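Session log. Operator J.P. requested a structure for one protein chain; no other inputs attached. Running the standard single-chain path with token output.
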Amino acid sequence: MEEKKNFKDNMKDLFEGWNTIPNWLCFLRIASIPVFSTLFIKGQYIAAFIIMIVAALTDLFDGKIARKYNMVANLGKILDPIADKLSQIAIVVILIVKYWNGMLRYILFLFIIKELLMLAGGALLLSKGLRPTAAEMWGKVATTVFYVFMILIIALGGESSALYGVKFFEPFILSNTVIWVLIVISVIMTFVSLFGYVPGFVRQIKENKAKQEDEKAEEE
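Structure written below.
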């Protein structure tokens, strides 16, 4: 009975004050994922590219608005990283399906592995009544690098890119070497950010285990 009460209280706390502009921007970013993915797969590159830019801007501004206007909500602390993970996975899947064969495809899969690990870790913490830690500096840097590099690749990365064939952008079309460099740098950054989460994750698990053992000892 106590577990149910705790769960109910946790959910109430999680959704308290959820109706904020930053949270709605997160909802918008999540809703945009199937839209720009579908448009891109169908070859409507310009429209997909514009929607992806808008989604990236919501990621840039939601945190700033939350801090500046004191709109930080518990739901937003969870929703924002989920929106990031889903957006990044969608972008990588688009690149894998639309563009490359060979070794580059397997390198791109590393992004998906990292994001799945992050989602699994977050789900594990939530299942234990814990909340995933907020993004550290390396996580924020890695996310920014990812968006900048992937937007560049999707916009200018060869014949299937959004701006290929637009005369003004022809001198800026990226070579395969540049694409490789951008992706490898982004992969390195994203795994550095993953390792940055590990100490906090392990600490939360240990503290929760110690708390449960103390409670069990008190009951006995």
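Operator note: The chain has seven helices and no strands.
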